[in-house]
Specification:
The protein has 485 residues and is of the alpha+beta class. Helices cover 34% and strands 27% of the residues. The protein has an 11-stranded mixed sheet, with helices on both faces. Helix 2 packs antiparallel against helix 6. The structure holds ligand 86X and magnesium ion.
Length: 485
């Protein structure tokens, strides 16, 4: 039938797999960990792309495209940089029947692809800042359970790679990009995130520091990394000899950043807003914001109703609202309601004989099912207001749920209690790796281990209790459950 067989709060993993398929976002593919992104998903990727691409162009960042293939020598340039990652690298070993002389890696990320050329291109301070971005796919042959959008062996992302003469410039850009990621989540996907800094243990090992926007999946009580903006320091400059002659003629190493968000953003949005009727799309990223459904009654003025639907769509389109009429005559209105609810269209407009007679339409919100009759003359104003209200309501509801699953722990007991309640924890933190490792060990239990998510930039006032050596930063812990999402 049309409905979902799994309930979100009872079988989250199965609900998610079903809703991405029934909502026509994903088609499962015959290679494990690979998924087809159907237009209903691709249009969301495009909306975010259009925003982010325009913003980075304002920052004078230019798009480019580097090859998919990486030669082994370059990939393995720095042993410690890729030590843990080697099992994820996919290799091309043959062409046709014949083996390649040397296997070629498929990019899992592009530092080692790009930086030998940064070294060639950057000679003097006038070549700086060099700021390139690419929109592409990457391949990481992961083995932990694949999940559409959240963890796939190939995914789409943008990766920015920038080089500066000074650390100050790099530090500034790291945060400018992080703010764009916050805006993608909070202004477009209606998902609240926390900005923060990763611990030494959790950061990108090849970099100097990692900043992150952490999102929250209330159904699992887990945090999830939303996007990341690293300052690489001069580590890669040293590795790839990316030097420049400064104004005084001295040879200096550049300071670099790299930053990315991926198609995981779409999965997070689905998990946060979806319900037992299907997807719930925030209007800012919905390719169809309003669907108009004719409700003919016997033969009462059917033509008038269809004409009204067409003119409502035209009026909305003229005012920049993406609207579509479902005039298919082989489906009932009821079927259409369920279908477009499953696809998460934010607003439905119904037009029947009574609406026609009263010169009104009935609007039905997807987020809270509220039904309102509005005069046709107020159509555009009311629809725009309602779409804005839906966007805000989705964000507010997600924020409230997130805060409900976070708690402050000042003592070890409070900490363990919160863990067992599958909460995210704000706890005093000494930011020492050995302590982080020991806490990970001490908390390894049937629910999985615990890891730190970030140290939030917005630190709440210091709690008075201390249980780590000394209180420096608060951070949010993540309770990892073996049965990941
Ligand atoms: O997160 C970003 C933003 C965009 C550019 N890259 C960085 C760091 C990526 C870390 N990382 C992540 N995954 C990796 C997987 C691999 F197989 C290899 Cl060889 C390397 C890596 C790796 O360096
Ligand atoms: Mg990884």
């Amino acid at each position: 039938g049309l409905g979902l067989t799994y309930k979100k709060d009872e079988n989250f993993g199965e609900w998610y797999s079903e809703v991405v398929v029934n909502g026509e976002m994903i088609q499962y593919y015959d290679i494990s960990g690979c998924y087809i992104l159907r237009p209903w998903a691709m249009s969301i990727w495009e909306k975010m792309h259009d925003f982010f691409d325009a913003e980075i162009k304002k920052m004078k960042i230019q798009n480019c495209y580097f090859p998919l293939f990486v030669s082994p020598g370059v990939l393995e340039k720095e042993k410690d940089h890729i030590e843990g990652f080697a099992p994820e690298v996919a290799w091309v070993t043959k062409s046709g029947e014949s083996d390649l002389e040397v296997p070629i890696a498929i990019r899992p990320t592009s530092e080692t692809v790009m930086y030998p050329y940064y070294s060639k291109w950057i000679r003097g301070h006038r070549d700086l800042p060099l700021r390139l971005n690419q929109w592409c796919n990457v391949v990481r042959w992961e083995f932990s359970n694949p999940t559409p959008f959240i963890r796939s062996r190939e995914f789409l992302w943008q990766e920015g790679h920038t080089a500066f003469a000074t650390k100050e410039e790099a530090d500034k850009e790291v945060l400018e990009i992080l703010e764009l990621y916050r805006r993608i989540y909070e202004e477009f996907l209606a998902v609240p995130v926390i900005k923060g800094k990763k611990s030494e243990l959790e950061k990108f090992a090849g970099g100097l520091y990692t900043t992150t926007v952490e999102a929250f999946i209330p159904n699992t009580g887990r945090g999830v990394q939303g996007a990341t903006s690293h300052c690489l320091g001069q580590n890669f400059a040293k590795m790839f000899e990316i030097n420049f002659e400064n104004e005084k003629g001295e040879k200096c190493m550049v300071w670099q950043n790299s930053w990315a968000y991926t198609t995981r953003t779409i999965g997070v949005m689905i998990m946060v807003h979806g319900d037992d009727k299907g997807l719930v799309l925030p209007p800012k990223v919905a390719s169809v914001q309003v669907v108009v459904v004719p409700v003919p009654f016997k033969d009462a003025d059917t033509k008038g109703i269809f004409d009204a639907c067409t003119s409502v769509v035209e009026t909305l389109k003229e005012s920049g609202i993406s609207a579509e009429a479902d005039t298919r005559d082989n489906y009932s209105p009821g079927w259409k309601y369920s279908h477009w609810e499953m696809k998460g269209v934010p607003l439905r407009i119904e037009i029947g004989p009574r609406d026609l007679a009263n010169k009104q339409v009935r609007i039905v919100r997807r987020d809270n099912s509220a039904k309102t009759d509005i005069p046709i003359d107020d159509l555009v104003v009311k629809v725009r207001e309602t779409l804005d209200a839906i966007q805000q309501n989705l964000f507010d509801a997600a924020k409230q749920k997130k805060e409900a699953c976070m708690t402050v722990a000042k003592t070890w007991e409070e900490f363990m209690d919160a863990l067992n309640q599958k909460k995210l924890i704000l706890a005093p933190w000494c930011d020492e790796e050995d302590v982080e490792k020991s806490v990970k060990e001490r908390t390894r239990g049937e629910m999985g281990a615990v890891k730190t998510l970030c140290s939030p930039f917005d630190q709440p006032e210091m709690p008075e209790g201390l249980f780590f050596r000394h209180l420096t930063l608060l951070y949010i812990k993540l309770l990892l459950s073996r049965h990941n999402i």
